[in-house]
Design a protein that fits this description.
447 residues; mainly alpha
């Protein structure tokens, strides 16, 4: 027999959702007034409405409005799952897959070292420095830390580069392309980890199977999937109302992709992320449709998702300064050194290489989503999640000023003219729309 919500539960659900959205909007605007990204205000809104503040002073009302179990809690969980999947759809739309392939020789060292060194440092730290925070499988815990240390945020990075006038410079190309590579590998790894957590089987065979399924689906989506999208979009544009038809196709495809990856044991967000890459890379995906999807996701689903982080976690109770300092220093140093060395070996000066390293250390929304998913699946506890949220916010704020300082020490960081050897033709660069800049403001980044 199907269980349904009674009238009071429906009223409560809609009122709580409305209150969360209003609070997220108000605190987001307040954050902007103080020169901070919107995402900080949205998280603070959740903290104020969550167990740390409202739940502390009004525990009975908090339990009534946000019960930990039951039908209403299940619906809220489904809504936040949809929200994070659509967030990853938008993030995937920002990845220029064609550009990655075109610039493969230039980003190889920067991207690979920017992934390998942070991964190794995170893996080692989890085993030797932070074992007391592991409450499950030590290998999965260590693999999460290694992968989490590699994450960058494309929207934040794009905003920083545009603010510094470097988006079309050789530094901008290397940073953006390397961030795309690192994020793609990172989300593949997270999908594998969540698959292993779901099955509760950790062996060489299970790991190989999870990696094989994840990589197989990714390859299919980035080859056959991109080909199908390029065939479907022109058909939809010629036979359906625009932009409604295109938007409908994108959202339906994202839901199907999410269902497919969830069905094979990989988290739903990875399917949405790959659909975003496949569709966002198509020349038939018009700007108006892209911007409408981003605006809706970023102004409804994103505030709801980030505010619910504070609703679920007591940030004050679980604020561990020592843990935060360890994670912040190790993750930042590993990312800056790894990416910086890679950029230096491609021929950049030391100042330019440092700028590349700090640019790729901007983590923004992607780090927060990454940590939240791991927390929801039991890979990490509340203290570790809070530490990664702080890492994401602080690195997003400080990366731009540090890059500016590094580049002020060299004249070679200027945007190159068309006749210079490193100049890049405009069509060969990832495009950034006004909505993408809005995404960047959410993280600054966000982004």
């Amino acid at each position: 027999m199907m269980v349904s919500l009674h009238s009071n539960q429906i009223v409560t659900f809609f009122l709580v959702t409305a209150i969360v959205l209003v609070a997220a909007r108000l605190f987001g605007e307040l954050a902007l007034k103080f020169g901070q990204p919107i995402i900080i205000g949205e998280i603070i809104a959740g903290i104020v409405l969550g167990p740390a503040v409202f739940g502390y002073f009004f525990p009975d009302v908090f339990q009534w409005a946000l019960p930990p179990n039951g039908e209403a809690a299940t619906i809220m969980e489904g809504l936040t799952t949809l929200a994070v999947s659509l967030l990853l759809l938008v993030a995937g739309m920002e990845v220029e897959f064609t550009e990655l392939w075109r610039q493969k020789s230039k980003i190889a060292l920067t991207g690979v070292l920017g992934f390998v060194l942070p991964f190794a440092v995170g893996l080692t730290a989890a085993y030797f420095l932070l074992p007391e925070f592991n409450h499950g499988n030590p290998l999965l815990f260590a693999l999460f830390f290694g992968t989490a240390f590699t994450i960058s945020s494309l929207p934040v990075i794009a905003r920083i580069l545009l603010d510094l006038g470097l988006f079309r410079s050789r530094i901008g190309v290397v940073i953006m392309s390397s961030a795309m590579v690192d994020d793609l590998i990172g989300w593949v790894m997270l999908s594998v980890l969540l698959s292993l957590v779901t099955t509760q089987i950790v062996s060489v065979t299970s790991v190989a199977l999870a990696i094989g399924l994840t990589m197989g689906f990714a390859i299919m989506m980035l080859t056959l999937g991109r080909w199908l999208v390029n065939r479907l979009l022109p058909w939809v544009c010629s036979r359906m109302t625009r932009p409604e038809g295109v938007i409908g196709l994108v959202l339906v495809t994202a839901l199907v992709g999410s269902a497919a990856t969830e069905a094979i044991g990989i988290h739903a967000v990875f399917g949405a992320f790959l659909v975003g890459i496949a569709i966002g890379d198509s020349k038939h995906f018009d700007r108006s449709s892209r911007d409408i999807i981003k605006l809706f996701v970023l102004n409804f689903f994103a505030p709801l998702y980030f505010a619910t982080i504070g609703l679920k976690v007591n940030f004050i109770q679980h604020f561990d300064l020592q843990l935060i300092a360890i994670i912040f220093v190790l993750a930042s140093v590993a990312k800056v050194v790894g990416s910086g060395f890679g950029a230096y070996w491609t021929g950049m000066s030391k100042s330019e290489a440092l700028a590349v390293g700090f640019g790729l250390n901007a983590r923004g929304m992607m780090q927060i989503v990454f940590g939240t998913l791991a927390f929801q699946h039991g890979l990490i506890d509340e203290k570790v999640l809070v530490a990664f949220v702080v890492l994401a916010i602080v690195t997003s704020i400080i990366s731009g000023p540090i890059m500016k300082y590094c580049l002020s020490r060299t004249q070679s960081a200027k945007v190159h003219k068309p006749d210079e050897p490193w100049a890049i033709e405009p069509d060969a660069l990832p495009s950034v729309s006004p909505v993408a800049l809005h995404m960047g403001e959410r993280e600054e980044v966000m982004r």
